[in-house]
Automatic annotation (TrEMBL):
The gene is hisD. This is Histidinol dehydrogenase. SUPFAM superfamilies: ALDH-like. It holds the Pfam family Histidinol_dh. It comes from Maccoyibacter intestinihominis. Binds 1 zinc ion per subunit. Belongs to the histidinol dehydrogenase family. It comes from the Bacteria. Its EC number is 1.1.1.23.
């Protein structure tokens, strides 16, 4: 793995290289995605079934696109009992964490007849996209569905690509059932996003689409935004580890590789103040890669977007972490809690050598749907907030309006909006 001394030049080069992974750089696929969306919008189910045959090799029809109770029952029979137990334990943690994020309506009233407030309303129908293909992600089901359930969403629709046999992975179905999904449809890719955004004969239109996916899914979500809401346009996974001489190099190497194995565009970066640690981590990585099952993917990821950066002091290391704004940030230093207070930009922060990133992926409770590609500078993890909307409440009595109505009229007339002014004036005509 590349070991570099941290300089302004090397930092700039790294940031520019990482930005190449952004979905905003996928322009060459946009025309294909636009065509798929328009076909689904116009031809609805017919286009869905055609694309599913072409892209997934599965023959799906109006009679088979919806997952049945019998298929879910079969999934339970095929899932390892120990895995089911783990899914249930993780769900408790995820639910408990997200319940603390709940927001409630509030109202303030005054004796003169003013009432102001905010009404919190869950979204009515949400679509959750779950990837298929190269890998299966039941954890993604839990993380996308549970905050919606906690928020009180009326109906949760899930789409996921089928295998060539027309079936969905058993663990995905079981996770969906345990989390409380209402309906599951066998369709994936940009065509699934279009179906959720505009509706077809089989799939109802939703208010918001959440969930990760490949380049086509990311671009489709970007294209339908405005017709529906979306959570974010997720880029490839990434981890940054901040470490000093007290860190265990074997632990650090293992954690970096936990993200590099996602795909060839994943990023794994170590920023350390210790040259000795940098060299030891590099050796551990080389040894681990030879043993791991996804070694080809890992090696490509490390070659393209893996870095070990040696900083001159803690301040430079922390500044670099804030500029990269990584999806996952591990702090393995003498005083991780003190360092954490200086972190401004990160999707999720893991403190101490036993808080490995996969703990957050699967079990601890905080959401693993996180901002990527530097967007942690202005985006947050998926949360209950993503599944509610807020309405402002305003009520004035005549007695409350009378002392201030001339002020409102003056403001409106200043903006030359005479109808606005008139709407207030008519209430106080002689």
């Amino acid at each position: 793995m590349k070991i570099l001394t941290l300089t302004e030049e090397s930092k700039t080069d790294i940031l520019e290289n990482l930005l190449k992974r952004s979905p905003n750089s996928y322009g060459k696929f946009e025309s294909q995605v636009a065509e798929i969306i328009e076909n689904v919008r116009a031809k609805k189910d017919a286009a869905l079934f055609d694309y599913t045959r072409r892209f997934d090799g599965a023959d799906i029809s109006a009679d088979t696109i919806l997952v049945t109770d019998a298929e879910i029952k079969e999934a339970y029979e095929n899932v390892d009992a120990k895995l089911l137990e783990v899914i249930k334990k993780a769900l408790v943690n995820i639910r408990t964490y997200h319940e603390k994020q709940r927001q409630y309506s509030w109202f303030d009233s005054e004796e003169n007849g003013i009432l102001l407030g905010q009404k919190v309303t869950p979204l009515q129908r949400v679509g959750v996209y779950v990837p298929g293909g190269k890998a299966v992600y039941p954890s993604s089901v839990l993380m996308n569905v549970m905050p919606a359930k906690v928020a009180g969403v009326d109906e949760i629709i899930m789409t996921t690509p089928p295998g060539k046999d027309g079936k969905i992975c058993a663990s995905t179905l079981v996770a969906a059932k345990e989390a409380g999904v209402d309906r599951i449809y066998k369709v994936g890719g940009a065509q699934a996003i279009a179906a959720l955004a505009f509706g077809t004969e089989s799939i109802p239109k939703v208010d918001k689409i959440v969930g990760p996916g490949n380049i086509y899914v990311a671009l489709a979500k970007k294209a339908v935004f405005g017709h529906v809401s979306i959570d974010s346009i997720a880029g490839p996974s990434e981890i940054l580890v901040l470490a000093d001489e007290t860190a265990n190099p074997r632990f650090v190497a293992a954690d970096l590789l936990s993200q590099a194995e996602h795909d060839e565009m994943a990023s794994a970066i170590l920023v350390t103040t210790s040259k000795t640690l940098a060299e030891e981590v590099s050796k551990e990585i080389d040894a681990f890669v030879k043993q791991l099952s996804r070694k080809e993917i890992i090696q490509k990821s490390l070659d393209q977007y893996g870095y070990i950066l040696v900083a001159k002091d803690d301040a430079e290391a922390i500044q670099t972490a804030n500029e990269i704004a990584s999806e996952h940030l591990e702090i393995v230093m003498k005083n991780p809690y003190e360092v954490m207070t200086k972190i401004r930009n990160a999707g999720a922060i893991f403190l101490g050598e036993y808080s490995s990133e996969p703990l957050g992926d699967y079990f601890a409770g905080p959401n693993h749907v996180l901002p990527t590609n530097g967007t942690a500078k202005f985006f947050s993890p998926l949360s209950v907030d993503d599944f509610i909307k807020k309405s402002s409440i305003i009520s004035y009595s005549k007695e409350a309006l009378e002392p201030v109505y001339k002020d409102i009229v003056q403001f409106a007339e200043c903006e030359q909006l005479t109808a606005h002014a008139n709407s207030i004036k008519v209430r106080f005509e002689d």
